[in-house]
Design a protein that fits this description.
By secondary structure, the protein is α+β, with helices and mostly antiparallel strands. The chain folds into 5 domains: 7-111, Zinc finger, CHC2-typedomain (DNA Primase, Chain A), CATH 3.90.580.10; 114-245, DNA primase DNAg catalytic core, N-terminal domain, CATH 3.90.980.10; 251-382, 3-Layer(aba) Sandwich (Dna Topoisomerase Vi A Subunit, Chain: A, domain 2), CATH 3.40.1360.10; 389-446, no CATH class; 466-613, DNAb Helicase, Chain A (Orthogonal Bundle). The chain is built from 26 helices and 17 strands. It is elongated.
Amino acid sequence: MAGRIRREDVDLVRERIRIEEVVGEHVTLKTAGVGSMKGLCPFHDERSPSFHVRPGVGRYHCFGCGEDGDVFAFLEKVDGVTFVEAVERLAGRIGHQLRYEEGGAPRPQQDVGRRQRLLDAHRIAAEFYAEQLFTPGAEVGRRFLVERGFDRAAAATFGVGFAPTGWDALTKHLRGRGFTDDELVTGGLASRGQNASRGPFDRFRGRLVWPIRDTTGATIGFGARKLLEDDNGPKYLNTPDSPLYRKSSVLYGLDLAKREVARSKQVVVVEGYTDVMACHLAGVGTAVATCGTAFGSEHIAIVRRIMADDDARSGEVVFTFDGDEAGQKAALRAFEEDQRFVAQTFVAVEPGGLDPCDLRSTKGDEAVRELVAGRRPLFEFAIRSTLSGYDLDTAEGRVQALRAAAPVVAGIKDRSLRPEYARRLAGWLGMEVEAVSRAVGGTGGRASSRPARLAQRPSAPPDRDPVFASERQLLQVVLQSPSSVPAADFDALGPDAFAVPAHRAVHDAVRSLGGVAAAGPAWVERVREAAGESVAGVVGELSVAPLPESTGEGTARLAVDLLRRVLDRDLLRQEAELRGRAQRLEASGDAEAVAEAYAALFALAARRQQLRVT
């Protein structure tokens, strides 16, 4: 067996390889002073670039996490290969024949590192599938492509192939090229059945196949689409997780899109392989897709590194979703991850529900480009999608919709846009801008950007906010000294009296127990239990936080003052809601209903005035 690679060969490869080119296949680098380049670190999550590369000395160093080394160390870390495998890969890249200290010749093929063996097997498999696409048995696959507007050149560009219907056509082909059954199973190219004596069989059979490549262009897996009626498998079948392939950290098409993504600082996330093909062929060269999984944090990290998504220059991420309920849910899931991007996030939805592939085949390339050009901010789509789940013709529906949508507005990264979208939300709801702005402010900004989970993780803004402070202190008194609180007045507060979601959740728990009037032994524990696990922490904090007044008489005075403030804001909210209702009724021409609404409005105004003079 060959021994260690000769030191002079290692040094020669290190000298001839440009480290910035190797690193640049994983990270978009930009000039950072004389002789230095920087980008977002591939080894830890960061918002501003602290990963520096010095081409002149052939080394990298991250000032954020401390990772550093030469080009071999980079490959060892980023790809999980051994030092020898890293040297051999880079030597092959420059065409240099390595020498080994024992034997003086290259290692036998069977001794080459496992990762490179698996990469070679996938490369040969991709070539095999591509050749099979033009055999008589693949007519169904060619018809599938033609019906979607893809010709032979398109298939070649994306490496589309066909897996024969035979039991082990690929397996036999790769065995003939020197690969073992264990290697094929490990790489996900073949599977073992219950009958071990029969040996492994092809994972993909009778399917159209797309090679999935990493950012260097190396094939690491496949995605396969069902074509035949007697195929009982899923519509799409992917390579299982393997030493080469993890679906949570792979984006289909990124190898083709990465240069344009880095140049334009835009990425378009679509839902399938044919959508990526359609976008690229239509001139949207920044399109990528996940491989059978949701767009998650690891995908975001990859996109940010390629896009150079840092605080210095903004970019944009455009998601395409179907216009149906599933698409809306996907958009809301994407909005949950929005904070991880510095770039602005958008959504592009075709009104007729067509995906990019169908849109291109029915309306042409221009329609695909217009779809992306007509993108809307993701948070606008998230707000409208949230409102669609409520009956805005009723007061209860509008209040519930406001409660759900306010955190979405508060979650907009660009704070200067929040007031504008608060005004738009008020218009969509038919409510006063002041009330909506107060609700948005009460969510605590970015503390909760997940409307669907609002009840699970109530948010709380800073103590300096007067609304927050008065509500918090009143609930502190309710929990710590319930006898000091005027029970009749407090228990008469409606379910929407508290503006801050976290405080509203605690108030709901108190109301469910019968109000302050029902306070007694183990009061705090009872409220904690009624509030549930997600709010228990808030209850616990309020029950021990110090109050401004500590004596019994002083606490009672404080409770009355705080209760008056909360009640005044609740009456103001009711007034705004009634005023909006009256305005809508005026447009309907129902004079009697309008008169009743204004009578109720005047009564509320009088009650507020009385509260202020008592």
